[in-house]
Amino acid sequence: MQVEIWSDVLCPFCYIGKRRFEKALANSVNKNQIELVWKSFQLSPDMITDPTTSVYDYLAQHKGISVEQARQMIAQVTQMAALEGLEYDFDKAINANSFDAHRFSQLARVHLVQDEAEEKLFAAYFTQGKNIADHQTLIELGSGIGLDEKVVSDMLLGDAYANEVMQDIYEAQQVGVRGVPFFVFDRKYAVSGAQDAQVFEEVLEKAFGEWKQSLSNMPEIQEGDVCTPDGDYA
Fold first, then answer.
1. Comparing C-alpha atoms, which of 165, 220, 205 is closest to residue 38?
2. Helix (H) or strand (E) run with residue 58 in it
3. 126 in a structural domain
4. Domain holding 89: CATH number?
């Protein structure tokens, strides 16, 4: 069964949501039958990558609040992350446009290491103070999960996977995404936000049970002579 997660690298609740969902998944006896698909979403598509401006200043300007208020907001989410074992360091975080990071994630999906890529991206932004819009940074992150450096470099130099990113963003509108993280279970149930692990566990088991039941409702097939799509006779 497929679970789709709309997320943005710059979203602190998305990393927290990832950890909480992972707890739910670890407790599921069906975890080996769950396919995770990370879907692209941009909270600030017009953001200009700027290592010289602090996250506090950007948030204050973006929300029309004081820098002190921005610091208080970030302190609260940092404490929330710590409860999940995550160490956020916004003093080092770099304001960066996430579009190429999403293209990187799309490439990783093709190579079956997308969840690993998302983990690397979150840690790079929230903990390590790396510029997730920088191509060399993305190449190094890719190498760390087994992706060929030239493959990642060639992708970044062109526009590969840009359409996939935009398709995910368009699709988000169709399934009712208003904010991230947004989890969709078998296109039947959805959970919005970094909910408690118990919420994810309950929805996961309900969706999986119905998905498994739908498989048993498949019609019984009496085999006979057919033509296959590859042109063979069977």
1. 165
2. helix 55-63
3. yes
4. 3.40.30.10
